[in-house]
Specification:
Layout: E1 2-7, E2 16-21, E3 31-34, H1 47-50, E4 65-66, E5 75-76, H2 79-97, E6 102-106, H3 112-126, E7 131-133, H4 140-150, E8 167-171, H5 175-178, H6 180-192, E9 197-201, H7 207-210, E10 214-216, H8 223-236, H9 242-248, E11 249-250, H10 252-259, H11 264-271, H12 275-287, E12 291-295, H13 297-300, H14 305-319, E13 328-331, H15 338-344, E14 350-351, E15 355-356, H16 360-370, H17 385-393, E16 399-403, H18 407-410, H19 414-422, E17 427-431, E18 444-447, E19 456-459, E20 464-468, H20 481-491, H21 503-512, H22 526-531, E21 534-535, E22 560-561, E23 580-585, H23 601-604, E24 612-614, H24 616-621, E25 629-633, E26 638-645, E27 653-657, E28 690-697, H25 710-713
Parallel strand pairs: 6-7, 6-16, 8-9, 8-12, 9-10, 11-22, 12-13, 16-17, 17-18, 23-27, 24-26
Antiparallel strand pairs: 1-2, 2-3, 4-5, 4-18, 14-15, 19-20, 20-21, 23-28, 25-26, 25-28
The structure holds iron/sulfur cluster.
Iron/sulfur cluster binds at residues 8, 10-11, 13-15, 41, 45-46, 48-49, 180-181.
């Protein structure tokens, strides 16, 4: 028996795990528990981490498979044949249509080593920046907001701040269900310290909101109004940090003048909250020495996501709540290695080491490091997730390579996205599992090794890098993602660029590219990480724990930038024909499109089916009873869900969980109704809100009445396992 220390491969909290492995490990013989020595999680795990071993051997893709068209069955082939097909196809497309006709769409589930080799292959060897990842759908706005306001990406806070703050301001996030261990730490501290205030901004009364001192159930799309309204009161009351503003920021007067428009009366009316609640929120900000804000996709997945992030950062800058214990703007990442993706260049506008495709010096540095001719790295920003769909529609994509993600469930305007995927002349799908919804659109399937079967690193939301060692062999013929990319690179004639014998060598090369960059990990190695997880900070930071402790930001003049925005509201507001706002989110236990969790009975039993939350007032108007089936129709598509009548959702808004693709339920894909309108700066789509109409329908055998007990059950939080 041996004990392997590793990281939970589900969410961006990044909890440490200890896996007890026998001589002949099988998923049922593995014992998983929280790693008490891990600095981020201190031994805690939620149900997902605790049951991860159960997902390892279910429905795995074992062998490479190919077919010539989507109506044919797959045929098993050797790796040699599959890889040669991939290489031949890429070579032909590059020769006939140019390198920008090759696209890769990856995932925050990839390890940093996988990400890095993919960047070297696409951006370096092929000369296209067409690598984007599902992080585009998750936290592109947060990353863009950090860069524009503070000069660099990277959350400036750490998890210890959860237990040092006087006021936690949670906006557009439901950590009790989606980041449970972060919330456990905060909630325990909140309970023990009555002076600590918890404000939750969310149109839903989530389990997080249930335990808040103040729940602001604002109308969807009014976040900027609320934030500017709080700023208005802070200015009015003189509750700003004049020294910090004077010495460390730019453009405060412009911002302050914009906030004058946001009187309490106007803001309360726009947001649908009381003036007293607005004033209470501002009072908590004003009276707290240390305010920590936490946000996730409720802020980021918006057509004004970057503006929301920057307006939230404004509050921190005007009150000096940044760069000190218990304070700062803290974006919670969704996926386990979304941060590693940002570090290694895993979005279409990035290059490794927090570099930008648009920056000529950054391109030159990367070209030089990779030993490539000047000009090899394209100055053109690559296709984002949605640009890949429009590229397919315009026949501009000759090869689409999808890795470790499930876009046939997770992309917006799903019927349109599926039609585009169906039209792809060649889709390579590299994943650990089969079937998935996306596999139906593939011509070539490549089986990938996953967590516990390959060695690599991941970075969590607090910039902590953990080594995830292999402790068992991959099933069938599955291979590590980076090995697959490297072998295709060799077959395309770039053997000299992929000499790596193992992932430690890949990591050793990658970290050199971070030297003296904001995410400097140049002193990290697999060997060092085997001893303990390591947190990165700016090269000039006295400690990596917190960034900007000296008040110097990474902008050219060292000052943070205020940003003045008026809200534009929702891209698709409700109207006479589509009078409701549909929002969506995640449930405790489930993970994204259920590729793993849908195969774990303990989790599926928690939520056997999807549902539609609707307020009793709206239900009464439409004569909808608890458990009745309802058609949810937008201008693009429709869903059919059983109603859950509950006061947890605000009138005029309905909510459905996003976990059910066509593999797990009929007509329950929330993205059937969402639209692709995106934030102009981060290009992150507004997945969180669209206008819908509700039509109750009669069905022969309605389901039993659903209970909504879980909303209360989880208000007391999942216990650490
Ligand atoms: S909170 Fe749960 S899912 Fe997220 S990393 Fe920790 S154990 Fe894994």
């Amino acid at each position: 028996m041996s004990v392997v220390k590793t990281l939970c491969p589900y969410c961006g909290v990044g909890c440490g795990l200890e896996v007890t492995v026998g001589e002949n490990p099988t998923s049922s013989s593995l014992k998983v528990r929280g790693d008490r020595s891990h600095p981020s999680s201190q031994g805690m795990v939620c149900v997902k981490g605790a049951t991860i071993a159960e997902s390892l051997d279910k429905d795995r893709l074992l062998y490479p498979m190919v077919r010539d068209s989507l109506d044919q069955p797959f045929q098993q082939v050797s790796w040699d044949e599959a890889l040669q097909r991939v290489a031949d196809r890429i070579q032909t497309v590059v020769a006939t249509q140019g390198p920008d006709s090759v696209c890769m769409y990856g995932s925050g589930q990839l390890q940093t080593e996988d990400y890095y080799i993919a960047q070297k292959l696409l951006r370096g060897c092929l000369g296209t920046n067409n690598f984007d990842s599902n992080s585009r759908l998750c936290m592109a706005a947060a990353a863009t907001g950090y860069v524009q306001s503070l000069g660099a990406d990277g959350p400036p806070c750490c998890y210890d701040d959860l237990e040092l703050t006087d006021c936690a301001f949670i906006m557009g996030a439901n950590p009790a269900e989606c980041h449970p261990i972060v919330f456990n730490r905060l909630r325990k501290y909140h309970k023990q310290n009555p002076h600590v205030k918890l404000i939750v901004v969310d149109p839903r009364r989530t389990p997080t909101a249930e335990v808040a001192d103040l729940h602001l159930a604002i109308r969807p799309g009014t976040d900027i109004d609320l934030l500017n309204g709080i700023a208005h009161l802070l200015v009015l009351w003189g509750a700003t940090d004049a020294d910090f503003i004077q010495n460390h920021t730019n453009d405060f007067p412009t911002y302050a003048s914009v906030t004058q428009y946001y009187s309490p009366e106007r803001v309360a009316e726009t947001c649908g909250i009381s003036i007293a609640d607005l004033e209470q929120a501002a009072r908590y900000w004003a009276r707290s020495e240390r305010v920590l804000s936490l946000w996730a996709m409720g802020v980021n997945q918006s057509s004004e996501g970057t503006a929301k992030v920057r307006t939230l950062i404004n509050l921190h800058l005007m009150t000096g709540n940044i760069g000190k214990p218990g304070a700062g703007p803290f974006s919670l990442t969704g996926q386990p290695n979304a941060m590693g993706g940002r570090e290694s260049g895993g979005m279409s506008h990035l290059l490794p080491g927090y570099r930008s495709v648009k920056n000529p010096q950054h391109r030159a540095e990367v070209e030089q490091f990779w030993g490539l001719p000047a000009g090899q790295v394209s100055p053109t920003v690559g296709r984002t997730a949605w640009d890949i769909i429009t590229g397919l529609e315009q026949n501009d994509v000759g090869v689409l390579w999808i890795v470790a993600t499930n876009p046939a469930v997770s992309l917006p305007d799903l019927e349109r996205s599926k039609a585009a995927l169906r039209s792809s002349p060649c889709t390579i799908y590299q994943d650990a599992y089969y079937p998935t919804e996306t596999a139906a659109y593939a011509h070539i399937l490549l089986p990938a090794a996953q967590w516990g079967e390959k060695t690599g690193t991941m970075t969590n939301s607090e910039r902590m890098v953990t080594l995830c060692p292999a402790f068992q062999s991959p099933p069938g013929e599955a291979r590590a993602d980076w090995e697959i990319f490297a072998e295709v690179g060799r077959r395309l004639g770039f053997a000299a660029h992929f000499p790596f014998s193992d992932s430690a060598a890949v990591y050793a090369e990658f970290v050199q590219l971070t030297h003296d960059r904001p995410c400097d990990m140049s002193q990290f190695s697999h060997d060092r990480l085997r001893q303990t997880p390591l947190q990165w900070g700016h090269p000039q930071s006295p400690s990596p724990q917190r960034l900007y402790t000296d008040g110097r930001f990474l902008t050219p003049d060292g000052r943070a930038n205020f940003a003045a925005y008026h809200s534009r509201g929702l891209a698709e507001p409700p109207d006479r024909d589509y009078p409701f706002v549909m929002t969506n989110g995640r449930l405790y236990g489930h993970w994204h499109t259920q590729t793993r969790t849908g195969r774990i009975p303990k989790i599926t039993e928690m939520y056997p089916q999807p549902f539609l939350e609707i307020h009793p007032r709206d239900a009464q108007k439409l004569d909808i009873q608890d458990g009745d089936w309802v058609d949810v129709r937008s201008r693009r598509g429709q869903l059919r869900l059983p109603a859950k009548v509950t006061r947890s959702i605000a009138p005029g808004t309905v909510f459905a969980p996003m976990h059910w693709g066509s593999l797990w339920a009929d007509q329950a894909e929330v993205n059937s109704v969402t639209h692709p309108e995106a934030c102009p700066e981060s290009l992150q789509p507004e997945l969180k809100a669209c206008a819908v109409q509700l039509v109750p329908i009669a069905v022969a055998a309605p389901p039993a009445t659903l209970d909504n007990a879980h909303l209360h059950e989880y208000s007391e939080l999942p216990l650490p396992v």
